[in-house]
Each structure stands twice: as structure tokens, then as C-alpha cells.
Amino acid sequence: MKIAMIGAGAMGSLFGALLAEAGETVTLLDIRKDHVDSINANGLIIEDGYQRRTVKITATTDPDQIGIVDLSFVFVKSTHTADVVRTAAELSGSEGWVLTLQNGMGNIETLSERIDPLRIIAGTTSHGATLLAPGKIRHAGIGETVIGPWEKTIMFGAKIIAERFNQAGIITRTVADVQSMLWSKLFINVGINAITALTGISNGQLLDLEQTRQISREAVYEAVSVARAMGITIQEDPVEKTFLAATATAHNRSSMGQDVDKRRPTEIHAINGFIVRMAQQLGVQVPVNRTLTSLIETLEAHY
Q1: Does residue 152 carry a catalytic annotation?
Q2: Element (DSSP H or E) covering residue 3
Q3: Has residue 303 got a pLDDT over 80?
Q4: Which of 77, 185, 241, 262 is catalytic?
């Protein structure tokens, strides 16, 4: 399968490398020239626990060098989704699939503005990764990946991609109701990202104190109340899943935490901010999410 990884940050580089190691033809596409140059010159260096390996993989800043692909894998921050829609549409041509495992809500709606929804596959992943330096990442957590078609009746593409992922060691299953899974991942992000970003702690350290556990718990419960008001099916206990995710990625710094550390715009608008906007429309009270959103926005404004 010919794959273009649109956005070769920590997670994009990780998935691209795993698929390349499994024999897929993968090109990493990213705007950071130093990152691309390092990968092309030295390979992508992956730290995994106490081990380190180098994966030879092609990287570029120019989508015209890639050509039409079978799969355009969108892994940019949600703040940049609109910027890459055209690229994803052109790379996937008339028959290729477009897959997003991005954090937050609203990405699929943005992609659908230029891409046939029948060719869009969405999902979530519990893998964790950190960009350490240009051309170097840390694989900080392993977990299940779940994908499904945006249009529930078209499972063919999702099943083919899941098969390739599983062959690459990316444990993946398919679901028909992907929207429910996106909300499940949103609950986890709501309960982890902003708190770790504001406090400077790792995902696992969120569980060390009852104070941070309680803030996380309340943020998730508020998000659940919004989801229920919208008629979203909720599977399992969202708080328990959030704490399990924090444990599974204990040594990882959340993506929002990494953004704050590097003084970059965060995805707060697509995570806690999304809950705030939906709650306002529905007349639901979400004071913890409103506070977390305001604090992150304040922090960004004073970079």
C-alpha cells in the first residue's frame, strides 16, 4: 500500500515508521525542514523503553514529490486540518482513502468539505509518542487503535487498513459506529490533556494525587453530560478508561503538554473548548471544562 503521512510529528512519524517496517511504501510529509532533512540523512530514530532503533523512511516537505496514494493519513494538529484538506484530497485522488486519528472534534467535518465522506475513515489510538528532536521520537505508550468509516455502511476500506495495521504490529479493530469511539477518545483527552499541560506533569503523574484525579473526574463527567444531551451512545466507564489511558501512557507527556512546553498553539478548542461550546448550545453547565479552557487560552496568549 502506498501511504502519505500528512503531518510527521511524533505520532505521524511513529505510525509511518511502523508501517514502513512492515513493508508498506510510506512517505512522511511535514513542513519542518530540519525534521525532514534529518530523517532523510540519518533515518528516523525511535526510542522505545531502553532500546533505540533507526528506521529508513522517505520524508519530504513537497506533496508534489509523492504522487497519488492509496491512503492519505492525516495526523496534523486539529488547528491545521483546514490547511491540509486540499493536499489530502489531491494525494488521495478519486479512489484513495483518507484516514484521521487526530485528537478532538471537528476534523472530519473539515475534511468532508473537499473529500467524499464515503472515502473518509476515522478513529482513535492509545499509542503515545513524543518528538525529542528533529528526526528523533520516543514511543511512550502502546494501546489499541480503533477505526471505522465515517459513513457507517462502507466498512471495506476500514477493514483493509486494519489488516495492514495489524500486520505492522499496530493492534487495530474496526467498528461501524465510529462517532461513539471518537467521543470515547474525547473523554480521555478532556480528562488528561489540559491538566497535564497546565501542571507540567506526565500522564501517569495525573494519578498520583487525589486533587488532579478529581479535576480529571469532574471534567470527564461534564463531557459525559454533554454527550448524553446530544444522544451519543456511551460505552463503558469514561473515567475508568481515562485513568487506564493515563496508566498505559504513564511516562508520556500529553500532546497538549508538549505544545505548551514548546510554546505552540494547542488543540484546546477541539477538546475541552468543544465541550464548552456544545454545553452552551444545550444549556448544560460545565464549569471545570470552561476553567481549563480559559486557563490554556490565557497561557497561550502570554507565550
Answers
A1: no
A2: strand 2-6
A3: yes
A4: 185
